## 1
Amino acid sequence: MAWVNAIIQGILTGGLYALFACGLSLMFGVMKVVNLAHGDLAVVAGYVAIGIIAATHVPVLWSVVVVVPVMAVAGYVLQRTLIQSALNRGVLTTLIVALGLSMVIENGLLQFFSADTRGIGAGMSLVTSSFSLGSQIQIGWLLVVIFAVAVAVLLGLQYFLSGSRYGRLIRAVADDQEAAQLSGADYRHVFGIAAALALGTVALGGIAYGMYSDLDPTTGTDTILLFAFVAVVIGGLGSLWGTLLGGIVLGVAQQIGAQINISDELLAGYIVFLAVLVLRPQGLTARRAQS
Amino acid sequence: MSLVTDTAARQATGWRVTRSHRNVAWTGAGALAVVVVLALFPYIVYSGTTAILVQAFIVLTLASMWNLMAGYAGLVSVGQQAFVGLGAYFVLILAIHGTSPFAALPVAAVACGVAALPMWWLVSRLRSGYFAIATWVLAATVMLFIERFSSIGGGTGMPLPGFTGFNPTLLTAYTYWAGLAVTVLAMLGVYLLLRSRLGLVLTAIRDDEVAARTSGARVGLARMLVFVVAGVGCGAAGAVLAISQLQVQPDAVFNVQWTAEMAFATIIGGLGTIEGPIIGTAVYMVLQQTLASYNAWYLIILGLVAILIALFARRGLWGLVDERLHLRLFPVGYWLRTENGNGRPRSLRR
């Protein structure tokens, strides 16, 4: 029964990982940039939420309503200023700027907030309560809510990308940037929108992670960025629902690993990632092999 | 030295291909003098200074390797800390079994080169950004794997055995010389590599990969060799790290900070030049020493400076010097020299 519990837990954490991963996948699909600061920006969102809660004593979920749009706007600004100027100068510059941003954010948080871990909503009933299926399966409400939110976010993104005008522009620019420009799209504005979406979703993921576990300055890279990347690769580059599948596979692998040996949780996830990289590098959802 | 056979037409116009603009014997002698002076340091300066220099040697070796990978082969790896850690742990494993850590150093470096092969096989299919994060995940995997073994310290690390009975002054001197030797060999290795045919292939890849492939360059093989050489270099630096710290802790040796430091030192100094990492390491050490008491500040400033230089001075600080003075301490390029009507040599640089 512990195994069933573990697998259910793994599936539900897949939702959290999908929140981490969809932004990374979106930024790479549209702008061809791997944002190494992706996770650190999520941690910043978490810290901002903590600050807002501490300063104004609003309920935790209200901080989400404030922080996510703020981070989305920040993402737009960041893209149009820093990341665009790096993109104009080439792939290597973009990676260096992203790495620099990641280091600056992490060490800035370390310097101003110390290395202590912080949680969000520690005493909330949402965080601590759980329900039972049968007599031996215990499921925490928080993870169920996070999974539902992740599915809602992915549905929203899918609807936005397929139905709305900006969604079509994003897909056009992702497919062929120059052709989209010929059709009159301002690709920099479109990039900004994509970055705003990416940062909004990862901010949500960061706050969710702060409620599910704890945040510290290194969580951005150690946990969020690496898990997001692993989920994207396992699920398949360029597929939004693939990030959910990848997140679920990662979560289940981790929980099975933890059942075998408690300290092997992370290692199990990474071994599955390496196996996918070797056996099916295009990911589980892609239909043809990528070059 | 001419790489072009002299035909009658060429002899008539007086074209010559040389490896350097000025006489390199002087810079070679200068470099040798610098190394000799550095080697004498343990007799001249206090152990505090040699300890700082050992740190500088480690960073310089790492930066030279990262420069080789990113500046010449186009491989941006954010996972080189895997080799730093593996180098340290190979020394630890050998020391536990009775070998002197100093004797273990070259073995550890070679072992890291061997370990680089399966790692390359895993990540070589990926490109640029995804290659970068994949190497990071790989490094995290290596660390997690090593942490499983409590016989080599598990998650908390352990002190490095093999130093009992060592005179402390002698130990710092030997550590210093080991660091100096590793750095000199690393830079010499990079210099010779880039002067060789492999260097020509790498420069071609750096300039235009597709054109290099169509000219017949074996890009995949060249990249793999560079990855392995960088693994050896970073492993050797990790071995020196273990010896200088007298202990091996996974969080310290597998920290991604090593990659950030070597990347930033290279970018600030100048990517794609051998002199760049030297300048970058100097900047890094100055920042670290002056801001040491402010903990994370030197990394914040290092990161900001690296971002600014990547955006606004792409060839780094050495690139700024190079553009004005056309100075190359390590001649690895090709110069085309001709005589114009007045008989003075004109040089076109490539």
## 2
Amino acid sequence: MRNEVRALRLAREISQAELAEQLGVSRQTINAIETGRYSPSLPLAIKLARFLGRTVEEVFHVDENS
Amino acid sequence: MSMRTPDREQPVSRANPAAIILSVVIGLILFGVAVATGEVFVGIGFLAVTWGFAALLHFGPRFSDTIALVGDDVNDERHVYIHQRAALISINLLGFMLIGAFIVDIARGGDGSPYSYMALIGAVTYFSVLLALGRRT
């Protein structure tokens, strides 16, 4: 699943560690989400989108072919 | 299993305290047993290894996500997911090993025990949990 987490995070000029601390997860989890290796749960996806000031649909894009 | 994200106030990556306490307790037990059998230096060695491991679990997660995983960190939902997959793979492998050991024992003229009993317990547990979770979730 593609996402805009890295782009939105960089636009806010915050590090992975800072974002992780705000959301209550590890930095490695943020990295895994940004690189597409891990899909967050619905609660975490909503928290992430709200923190970045977007909707979940604007942050995460489901591949139509999957 | 709930994928609850922890509150911000909690430390993010940390080992399960039970894992740390268990390491300390096992070290004490092994030390006691070794000393009781007259092997003091062996006991000290057991203590060093188990308490060193406990220290690694306590301090290591701050620097390494892998150590946090080893220490059964369940504060991060991704860690919970990884633990679930690791448990699934391990259990499947154990299942195959049980079947293999059972077959080897039968081929050697044995009655297949205790492998058959272990497999029976595993199968009953699996299907019971399947039924229970199927109704609850």
